[in-house]
Specification:
With about 50 residues, the chain is an all-alpha fold. It contains four helices and no strands. Helix 2 packs across helix 3.
């Protein structure tokens, strides 16, 4: 459940134009760790737009 909430919050942040640095700071992790763990949210969104 916590993972789902985190992903929803990050998805909302991305939609609002937050940078990976800002997202990472909010999560208390490095920018690289945030991008590695959560960049699929952006990739999945791009795939859906092409369909």
């Amino acid at each position: 459940m916590a993972d789902t909430l985190e992903r929803q919050a990050v998805r909302a942040a991305i939609d609002q134009g937050w940078s990976w640095s800002r997202i990472a700071q909010a999560l208390g992790i490095s920018k690289q760790a945030a991008h590695k763990r959560l960049s699929s949210l952006v990739l999945n969104d791009d795939t859906r737009k092409e369909s």
